[in-house]
Design brief:
The complex is a heterodimer of chains A (290) and B (203).
Chain A: E1 10-13, E2 16-19, E3 24-29, E4 36-41, H1 45-64, H2 67-83, H3 85-96, H4 100-117, H5 120-123, E5 127-133, E6 136-144, E7 147-151, H6 159-170, E8 174-178, H7 184-196, E9 204-206, H8 211-219, E10 223-229, H9 232-244, E11 248-252, E12 258-261, H10 267-278
Parallel strand pairs in A: 7-8, 7-10, 8-9, 10-11
Antiparallel strand pairs in A: 1-2, 3-4, 5-6
Helix pairs in contact in A: 1-8, 2-4, 2-7, 3-4, 3-7, 4-6
Chain B: E1 2-5, H1 8-21, H2 41-56, E2 60-63, E3 81-84, E4 101-107, H3 110-119, E5 122-123, E6 125-129, H4 133-142, E7 147-150, E8 166-167, E9 170-171, H5 178-184, E10 186-194
Parallel strand pairs in B: 1-4, 3-4, 6-7
Antiparallel strand pairs in B: 2-3, 5-8
The chains are: A alpha/beta (290), B alpha/beta (203).
Chain lengths: 290, 203
């Protein structure tokens, strides 16, 4: 553990790209060609702390930005993601191995979430009732939590970050994204595009690494919520450890999906649909082919 | 896992093995490629060993993607694989393979198929292919999975619906996407307020 992580993999902390000084983690290569792509950092608590502190520092001014103004950054992000669709799809394919069509498909599903989060002025509304007792009114409002950690897997390098990030920031939270150490490059490009929207520094931070980085996020007192997608054993671990330190946690685990074919199904369309969905080589959590 | 009910096993076995065999495997950057590699060599070895275990547990590999020379030997590839007749009690039924392996198990009836689904420790999604609304309704009502497909292969919900998941596939309350995401990323504050100066409380 003496080598330093690949200098091409950086963390974004408070709006500044910083080369990780973490010990090296896993070696990366293009799964289709074996070509080396660099070395992921292992990650360590001090780096995670810097990212969480930056997110925490940005929170009080970001939550005060009106929601109608917050979503303007998401409209810009949607336009940038469309403009860079081909480039982002190639990055996903190079580091993950899935086909360009699959990479574009996952980007499309990710962009949908950006679009939905643009509706936050309506989605975030509470409710109220006048005269719950004579002269007394009752009002429910929704407020952001603070620093949210997003820990995402290798099988959907950009869709899963976009399952969470648009909603987290549109509701007024600040974010530390920790992508899978097997696919750091597409998440880094996503975060660069987020910066291009003009989003204030510190609202979205990126930290790379493996288990040491995850543990540091789960234990950090300033992290209020954790969103995770991965295997069932790790999901259970993240849920237990995050909850134990008082955080709100959502963890999507593994899948073993069943497809039932009845004798009265149409043979041709059934086979075509199943072969098509089963040709995802990585048989990921949303595919039933495993 | 595909669960064929009754006679479906015969036509599905023949149709899937020929369709799967024609899938073009290679570098995902090549636009004619229909399926890419698995993520690492370690993953490739793991999946290959799981295919071997499936065969030992009684499945017939009617299409075997191991040991194929794909993309000139570079990269971590496996060809499409179909394991036909995996016993429903096989440990492989509880293993997330993360590779291009379609296991096929056989059931006598839809009730039997639902019982097989319910044995699983996972609860991400299930699907049914049928022309019977009543059968589809039966499965939709009975299964413990968070997402259900009816004549849909991968029932991944659109962004304005939650991506659900039950049992070992999800820990927590609020799911990703849509209104669940808004709920997850906000906390509720309830204000009770009074402005008039007169005392209004009556007993």
């Amino acid at each position: 553990m003496t080598a330093i992580a690949s200098p091409s993999i950086h963390n974004l902390i408070g709006g500044k790209w910083i080369t990780s000084t973490s010990p090296a983690g896993i070696e990366l290569c293009n799964p289709a060609t074996g070509e080396p792509l660099g070395q992921s950092p292992a990650g360590f608590a001090a780096e995670v702390d810097a990212a969480v502190q930056a997110a925490h520092a940005a929170f009080s001014s970001w939550r005060a930005v009106p929601v109608a103004d917050r979503i303007q950054y998401l409209f810009r992000l949607k336009a940038l993601l469309e403009e860079h669709l081909e480039e982002l799809a190639r990055l996903i394919t190079i580091e993950n191995g899935k086909t360009l069509a699959e990479s574009k498909g996952e980007l499309r599903r990710g962009i949908e979430n950006v679009e939905v989060a643009c509706g936050m002025p309506v989605l975030m509304q509470g409710y109220s009732l006048e005269d719950v007792a004579p002269g007394i009114d009752e009002i429910m409002i929704r407020q952001p939590l603070g620093v949210c950690a997003l820990i995402t897997p290798f099988n959907f390098p950009l869709m899963i970050p976009l399952w969470f990030l648009p909603y987290a920031i549109a509701t007024g939270n600040t974010v530390v994204l920790k992508p899978s150490d097997r696919v750091p490059f597409s998440a880094a490009r996503l975060v660069e595009l987020i910066q291009e929207t003009g989003l204030p520094d510190g609202v979205v931070n990126l930290v790379n690494g493996g288990k040491p980085a995850v543990d540091a996020l789960l234990d950090h007192p300033l992290v209020r919520a954790v969103s995770f997608v991965g295997s069932t054993p790790v999901a259970r671990y993240v849920y237990s450890r995050g909850s134990a330190s008082g955080k709100r946690v959502q963890c999507q685990g593994g899948a073993k999906n069943h497809v039932v074919i009845l004798p009265d199904a149409d043979p041709e369309t059934t086979t075509r649909i199943i072969a098509d969905s089963a040709s995802d080589a990585q048989a990921s959590a949303v595919s039933q082919s495993a | 896992v595909t669960v064929t009910v009754g006679e479906a096993r015969h036509w599905f076995r023949d149709a899937i093995s020929s369709t799967a065999a024609s899938i073009k495997v290679g570098d995902g950057l090549d636009r004619s490629t229909e399926m890419g590699p698995v993520i690492t060599h370690a993953s490739q070895e793991r999946v290959a060993s799981l295919i071997g275990q499936g065969a030992e547990q009684g499945a017939q590999p009617i299409l075997d993607g191991r040991g194929k020379n794909i993309n000139g030997g570079a990269g971590s590839f496996l060809g499409p694989t179909v394991l036909d007749g995996l016993p429903p009690t096989s440990p492989l039924m509880e293993t997330e393979i993360f590779g291009p392996v379609l296991s096929v198990v056989h059931a006598d009836s839809i009730e039997h198929a639902i019982a097989i689904i319910e044995r699983s420790a996972f609860g991400n999604a299930s699907s049914i292919f049928t022309s019977s609304g009543a059968s589809a309704r039966l499965l939709r009502n009975a299964v413990s999975t968070g997402n259900v497909g009816i004549n849909i292969g991968v029932p991944a919900p659109m962004a304005w619906f939650p991506f659900s998941g039950w049992k070992g596939s999800f820990f927590g309350v609020m799911h990703a996407q849509g209104r669940d995401a808004v709920e997850f990323f906000t906390d509720k504050k309830v204000i009770v307020e009074r402005w008039p100066k007169e005392w209004s409380r009556k007993f």
